[in-house]
Amino acid sequence: MSAPAMRERFYDQVGRLLDDDPRVALVLAVIGASAVDPAVARRHPARLIDVGIREQTMVGVAGGLALTGMRPIVHTYAPFLVERAYEQVKLDLGHQDVGAVLVSTGASYDASSAGRTHQAPADVALISALPGWTVHVPGHADELAAVLTAAAGSDDRVYVRMSSQSNDRAYATDGRLHLVRDGGGPLVVAVGPMLDPVLAATTGLGVRVASTSTPHPFDAPGLRALTAAPSDGSAAPAEVVVVEPYLEGTSAAAVAAALADRPSRVLHVGVRRDVEVRRYGTPKDHAAAHGLDPTGLRQRITGWLR
Asked: Where does the record locate the signal sequence feature (predicted)?
């Protein structure tokens, strides 16, 4: 039996959290309201709040709940959660110095058939621009369940970015970079669901592949360890490719800071900044258009290796 999709797993897991923790409240703006188990909704009518199509209010309500000691989980499509309600995320959560768990669906071009209104490839860059946030980009439904449960048990500001794209298996969710394949040579870092496409793209290439499901804060010590200078004292530059499923170069500042005291050569690969892909089609079509399918990734990486 195949593993459930992340979104399906989210609705199941949030029901468990509502049952287990009286601090947890789920705040929605219509989207997702019909997906929650009706029995869960009947058991917790005061902690399952649907504000209607009012995303800014949704985040404001979450801020108010957090001020009373509750642990709000806020969920809708990424552009409505991050872009439309950005001021409320900044002020009603960040400026009030309270936490919440924001859980988005529709990563980058997952909702390709819905058009640009449902696409937000800059979401991680926007959240990362605010102080005090942790960003998780799980690559598997089991990773989603792990980071969601951990986030619900804290009071931190946490953004969880779900995707319809998934790896074949789950990996660690401890916030660190983990080496997945050691082929020698430059390091290719894959974020979340980009790992399987990166592994396919780099088959037979002399590179090492590492992954993380937590791109912010970026695991700088892990990156430095995986790109450590040779023991013979030679000044070989650190060579790194970062492949992210959102706006290209989102982690550029963090990677540059991690490698600031040594020569480095870095390629960032992600959703293109120079063009809006104005087509419908499938997420697979959009991945190809952005060069994020295995064929496109191999072309970018081999071109950079030459």
From this structure: none
